[in-house]
Every structure is written in C-alpha cells, then in structure tokens.
Amino acid sequence: MRGVKTKPVKLLQQQVQPPGCSIRYRAVRATLCALLLLVLLTGCNDGNRPPRERQPPPRVALVAEVIAAPPAAGLLTTVGYLYIDADGARLVGGLTRSADELRPLGGDAAQIWLDTVPTSVAAELRANDQARYGAVRVAGTFAGPGRFGPDACFRYQLVDVTFTPLVASEVTIALLENNLAIYEQQVLQLRGNLLVGTSSALLVDQLGSGGVPAANARQIKLAQPIQDEALLAQLQGAPGAAARFGPVTIEGFWQHGVLYPLLISAE
Prior knowledge:
- This protein has helices at residues 19-48, 63-68, 119-122, 173-178, 229-232; strands at residues 61-62, 74-85, 88-92, 95-98, 101-104, 111-114, 126-127, 132-143, 156-165, 169-170, 186-196, 201-204, 219-221, 236-237, 244-255, 258-266.
- The termini are far apart.
- By secondary structure, it is an alpha+beta fold.
- The strands form 3 sheets. Strands 10, 11, 12, 13, 14, 15 and 16 form a 7-stranded mixed sheet that branches. A 5-stranded mixed beta barrel has the order 2-3-6-9-8.
- It is globular and about 50 Å long.
- It folds into 3 domains: 17-52; 61-165, CATH 2.40.50; 169-266, CATH 2.40.50.
C-alpha cells in the first residue's frame, strides 16, 4: 500500500514580548494622543480669542510735573523743552509767545538748570533772536531743592545728562485719533480750535458759534491747567461763560490719551 505524501508544515512561532514593553508602548501612545488633542484644542481657542491690545509704554513725567511735585534726588527721565540763551541752558515745561518773543513759562522757579549741553545737541535746536530751543527727552541725576546756576536762582538741577532730541510730527486731529498707538510718546504739532473751560481744555477741529463744538467735531483732551496768560488773552470769551476759544497751533507731547502742551500759538 502506497503511503500518502504529506507536505511539511512550517510552524510560525509568535514572538512574545516581555510584559513591560507592551505597557510602556501603550503609555507612550496615550501620551502622544493626549498631546495631539491638546494642540488641536489650543489652536481652536487661539482662533476665537480676540487679539491682545498693545499696552502703552510706562508713563514719563514732564518737566512741568517734575517742578510741581519734585521727586527725591536721584535718577530722573523727563520730557520738555531744552532752552539755551545768554543765561545758560535749562529744561523748561513750556514756552509762551508774546510779541514774537518766546520765553519760558513760570519764570526761574519752573526751570531745571543744566551745567552743560553737547554742541551736537545744541546744533539741532531751533533758533530765534533770543534763544535756541527744542523738545527733548533727557535722563540724568536730579538734585534739589537748592541754589543752582548763575546767581543761584534755580532751585533744581540735572547732571550727567543724556539728551534725545524729539522732532515734532505734523498731524491732524483725525489722523491722531485713528493712530493713537503709533504716536504714543511723540511730540506732535496740530492745528485746531482751542476750547478752555474752568476744569477742562480741548482741541477741536470744528467749532460752531459761541465756541460750541460742532455735532460731528473731532476732539482731543489737553492736560490742564493752561497757564499761558498771554495766550488766553488772545482768545475769545464765550458769552455768559468762563470758557475761552480760538484757532491755535499746538506743539505738545502725546501720552496715554492726553496731549501735554509745550507751546501754544494763537492764529
């Protein structure tokens, strides 16, 4: 009897992994899935989240504010006009225009004495028959109260000073309103109608009769108080009110939604 031929059968041997490898694999896979889910959820949330508002830089004290509330002696950064005449160099909080003559507001008590000013800085200032002047941002060591300068007539002094000239940008009220962040902490020159009340001051692009802003007028807030008596005398008085108004050109420092006037010229 013939025998039946059979095909050899190959036995497949299953490789057996140690129990620890399988556990580690499942743990890694679970971690990767969780990370992927987190990325997807974060992406969805970012798409729905409103863009962050740009935060303004830290506030800088103006010279007029330093004089009004003097800080302790030490390092100080401030903004104002550098004013140089025959009596020397000072920082002033603002200028007043009278009969085509520019003089510091507030007299000697409202000025900060400077021992020296680099020639390169002085060369960038504007000049008239009496003095050289221009907006600057300065940093130095503040001293006072004391007796400084010629005849010891200034109460405050700044030494070891670094100067950064600030050139005014000519803008309109509308342009400023639409680009507030762009012009933050810059010196600006604007034309408009000044409206000064007992507790407020505004620069308005359109005024109606009697100094009342037009219904569609754009306006910006000015820092108070306006202490330029020569300027106020040139403005019109509102009937039956303490307000005064008139067309002006203002050069000032724009900071945190307020214009700090350095020079206001009536037109």
